[in-house]
Structures are given as structure tokens and as C-alpha cells.
Amino acid sequence: MWVLGLPFLVRGKLTQPPPTKTDNPLHSLPMNRTAFPSSPGRLFAEQALSRAAGAPLLTGNRIELLIDGAAHYEAWLAAIRGAQQRVLLENYIIRDDEVGQAFRDALVERAKDGVFVAVAYDWMGCLGQSRSSFWAPLRAAGGQVRVFNPPQLGQPFGWISRDHRKVLVVDGRIGFLSGVCISQKWLGDAKHGIAPWRDTGVALHGPAVTEIEAAFAQSWSSMGAPLPPFEQEASAEAGTVALRVIATQPSTAGMYRLDQMIAAMARKTLWLTDAYFVGVAPYVQALASAARDGVDVRLLVPGSSDIPVVSGMSRSGYRPLLKAGIRVFEWNGSMLHAKTAVADGQWARVGSSNLNIASWLSNREIDVAVEDAEFARCLAAQYEIDLGNATEIVLAPRRYRPNTDRVSASTPSPRSRRMGGSSSRAAAGALRIANSVGAAITDRRVLGDTETGPLVMGTALLLALAVVAIFWPAVVGWPLAVLALWFALNLGIRAWRARRRHWRRVKAVDEAE
Questions:
Q1: Separation CA 4–CA 78 (nearest Å)
Q2: 138 phi and psi angles, rounded to 5 deg
Q3: How many C-beta neighbours within 10 Å does residue 489 have?
Q4: Cα–Cα distance between 201 and 120 in angstroms, integer?
Q5: β-strand partners of 194
Q6: Per-residue b/e over 380-400, b at no fewer than 16 CB within 10 Å?
Q7: Sign of CA dihedral 345, 349, 354, 357
Q8: Does a structural domain hold residue 177?
Q9: How far, in whole angstroms, is CA 393 from its chain's centroid?
Q10: Angle at CA 350, nearest 5°, toward 249 and 92?
Q11: pLDDT at 25 over 60
Q12: ∠ Cα 147 152 153 (to 5°)
């Protein structure tokens, strides 16, 4: 479906246009094209946001909002089939199913016609989803396929860093970034009553496309030889939207800094949607401070997750959010996979980054931060539609314990909420125990009355570990020995590689002399 009459387009399931000025308080905000006022204050804010994100503000773009998998796949396949020069595809998951095969076949067709095709996928993301042989037809047609960060000796923690981006660039003229992977899961299964996954992305024209292509080129070169030079002119202006393309790499934390700044700068509203929310203390404190200052802070997360452990960890952190006045909602559908934010009806973010430490610090991610009132209001309208299919979580008083409270849903939870069951509850319990024990040991905060249980459980677990170590040392010793051997092997390989590089440099210097 297309919704016209805006400086951008919306494709997907948006069932009503953005609210008008009369029925949405967001429309009382100034209608300037960016999220902050002009003048020195505007320049200061722009500089601060650019430095925090590590990305400049790009003007002259046109942006299209894509809602859910069907709209994404239609737009992506149309762009691929119309490619004349090059197709650059980077995605965390490309599954060997009906959807994945449709994309592979479209890429094969373009490669046979002489179009340069480059595909990058993540090893862990595609583990059990597709094999290397899945790409044999594309390689045979002349396309290139690379896998990001497969297991290798010499990097004991290398597997932690993943390529979580979802990017498509065609001919340097149109770029897509999103939270959508290439899999039938995003379309649901009507035969078994499974609804499509809820997700969000964008299509871009203008200078932003050059930035997205540069981000792909950087990822590609990290896996082998760089991309060949392409003949193209700088992307011409295609619209009036100002935005930032934030392509993060491990340990850069650009998106984390920007999320923190937006939480600090929001004045009226901050509406967040996240698939795998596991808030770290500084970010939770930033959200809580905004809520206490009167900002309408809302968090929409899945009610049932494809990764139940993460769902349990998210729920374990609800209480401090709710106590600060933050409204928390759980999606009632099959899976909410979107990663979006809207602040003050003027600023919006869409992309692949989740609100957790993995996305902020260890993964390759890519997002677009849009400073455009019309786009932000349209995304806010979609947020309100999503809340219509969500359950609000509230603090309810405990019986016989008037000074404490518990987390509960404002309405009965649907059966799908039970997805993950005991593993979800175990994850939440483990996180609560770790948090309480850590606070008790470091004395970093005052312990609450409700933390007696986690402390007792932590005490029991540590005592059990001590007893096992005393009476059955082999039970503890063997795992430690295997771990030490693994690290020794990896460190030895790293040392040998470093030494070999040194010898090569010395040899090169000697030959030059």
C-alpha cells in the first residue's frame, strides 16, 4: 500500500494516515525541517549529534518508510531486478527457503547479465539457515559471496562480533536499510496461524546512498579484497530530508552515544520500539531521568520472542523503568522485530541496532537518524497503531506487603506469551541474582527489600560451588583446564602470527637495502 501526500512514501500496513494537527499533540511542535531550533543552539546540537554518532548530517534526501517483510521484499526484489551496474547485499540472515531462493535467483539473473553482484552474510546468523552450497549458482554466474567472521583459531572471543546489518544498495542510486532479514519467518505462516513478523525499514535516495555504499565497502574489505572502483557521480539531491547514516563497527559505540544524547535532549516524547531490549544501567538511568522530567517515555517490546532468553532478561529490567514513570508495552503478535525511536515528533531512528550491549559495542550495525518532522510524525503514527495490538505492563501492589510492588500486565496475557517458558524465567532469575549479588559485593547501591530472595539464592549457589570444588575438585578442574588450554592455543597462534609479520617486515627492509 502506498500513502501519498507527504515528502516521502510509506509502503506496508500503515492502516491510517498520520494524525492531523487537531488530534495529535505532537503537531503543536514547530514545523522546522530538523529536530532542533536554528541559530547557535541549532548549530551546537548538530555538532554534538554528529560527533556522538560519528556521522555528518546529510541534506537533500528522499526517504520511504517500509512496514513489515512483504513490503520490504517487494521493494528489494524490484530494485535488484532493475539493476544495471551493481547490486550490493549485506544481511545477517539469508535463509534457504522460498524467500531466500527468490532473492538468490534474482541475483543470479542479474549476474548472468553482467551486473556486478556482491553478497555478504554473517556466519552465525546463517548457521543452520543456509549452507555455502546455497550460493553455488550465484558464484557460477559470476557473483561474489563472502561470509563474515567464521570461527578461526587465534581469536578466542572473535565469535562475539557479528555483522548484524541489513543493507541493499543498487547502482548507487537507491539504498535500503532495515531490521528485516531474508527469511520466510518475516512473512508468517497462514496455514499454521502464524502472523507475519512486525518490522520496519527505509528506502533512500540522495547523498545518503553514497554513505550506505561506503559502509558496505568497508564491511566487504574486512572480509577480503576491496570492491572494484565504480564509475559514478556523487549522488544528487533527491528531496528535502536531512539525516545521518550511522554505520557502527565493534567498539565504536556511535549509536550508543546518540541514543544517550537523544534521551537527554527529548523534551516531550521519546517512543522506543526494540526487539531485544536489555538496557544497561547508564541508558536506563537516562530514560528514567527523562521520564522524571515529564517526558512521555514509552518502550514497546515483544510479548513472545524468537529468543526466549533475551525476553526473560528484558522483563527482569521492567521494574526500574516502571518506577521511573516509563510506560512499557508488550506486543501481542507473533514477533516484534523492529528497532525504531521517535523523539518530540521531530527526530526518528530506524535500522538494525537493538537497545543492548551487543548492538552498541560488539556488532556491525547500520541505522538512519532522520531529522524531519513529517517522517517522524508518520513513524509516530505507526507506533500508535502498534500500541493497539500491545498490552501495557504496570506495577501492581503485592498483597500483605504494602511497601512493595510487582510487575503485571494491565490485561490478561495471550497464550503466545508463554513461548520460551522455563528458559525465559530462568534467564530473568539469573539476571536478578547476578544484579543483586553484584550490588551487595561492590556496595554500589542500597539493596531493596525485594532482593532478599536473590541474595539467598546467590549465597546457596556459591556455597554449592565451594562444596563441589572441595570434595570433587575434578568437576571444577576439568572445565577450567579445557578453558585454559583453549586460551593458550589461541594466544600461541596470535603470538606466532605477530612474529611472522615481524619477520616479513625485517626481510622486506633487508631486501630494500
A1: 20
A2: -70, -45
A3: 13
A4: 19
A5: 189
A6: bbbbeebbeebbebbbeeeee
A7: negative
A8: yes
A9: 23
A10: 50
A11: no
A12: 170
Half-sphere exposure of 239 (CA within 13 A, CB side): 24
Question: Which three-class secondary structure state does DSSP give residue 213?
Answer: helix
Q: What is the distance between the alpha carbons of residues 225 and 242, in angstroms, rounded to a whole number?
A: 33
CB 464 within 8 A of CB 349: no
Task: Give residue for cell 528506502.
Answer: 203
pLDDT at position 406 is 57
Query: Which of 411, 249, 440, 269 lies closest to 344 in space, CA to CA?
Result: 269
Nearest to 212 by CA among 104, 346, 352, 74: 352
Asked if residue 177 lies in contact with residue 368, where contact means CB atoms within 8 angstroms, the answer is yes
Q: Give the span between the Cα atoms of 254 and 93, in whole angstroms.
A: 23
DSSP state of 438: H
- Residue 268 in domain: yes
Q: H helices within 246-341, ranges in order?
A: 254-265, 281-292, 308-316, 318-323
Q: How confident is the model at residue 22 (pLDDT cuts 50, 70, 90)?
A: very low
State phi, psi for 322 to the nearest 5 degrees: -65, -40
3-state secondary structure of 268: coil
pLDDT at residue 28, rounded to an integer = 31
Task: Give the pLDDT of residue 3.
Answer: 33
Q: What is the mean pLDDT of the chain?
A: 84
Taking only the tens place, the pLDDT of each residue in 84-106 is: 999 999 999 999 999 999 999 99
* CATH number of the domain encompassing residue 324: 3.30.870.10
Write down the pLDDT at residue 488. 84
Q: Which domain holds residue 261?
A: 54-226+233-393
For the entire predicted model, the pTM comes to 0.79
Q: What is the pLDDT of residue 444?
A: 62
Span 112-129, pLDDT tens digits: 999 999 999 999 999 999
The beta strand positions in 312-464, using DSSP E, are 327-331, 340-343, 347-351, 365-371, 390-398, 401-409
pLDDT, position 419: 41
Residue 297, pLDDT > 70, answer: yes
Beta bridge partners of 341: 272, 349
Domain annotation covers residue 330: yes
- Strands of 100-153, DSSP E: 116-122, 144-148
Contact at 8 Å (CB) between 14 and 3? Answer: yes
The model's pLDDT over 218-251, given as tens digits with 9 standing for 90+, comes to 999 999 999 999 877 667 889 999 999 999 998 8
Residue range 340-379, pLDDT digits in tens: 999 999 999 999 999 999 999 999 999 999 999 999 999 9
- The values of phi and psi at residue 33, to 5°, are -80, -10
Each residue's pLDDT tens digit, 477-493? 888 888 888 778 877 88
- Gap between the Cα atoms of 105 and 33, Å rounded: 41
Bridge pairing between strands 241-248 and 340-343: unpaired
Structural domains in the chain (count):
1
Q: How many CA atoms lie within 13 A of 209 on its CB side?
A: 28
Q: How buried is residue 184: exposed, middle or buried, by Cβ count under 10 Å (0-12/13-18/19+)?
A: middle
Residue at 423 is within a domain:
no
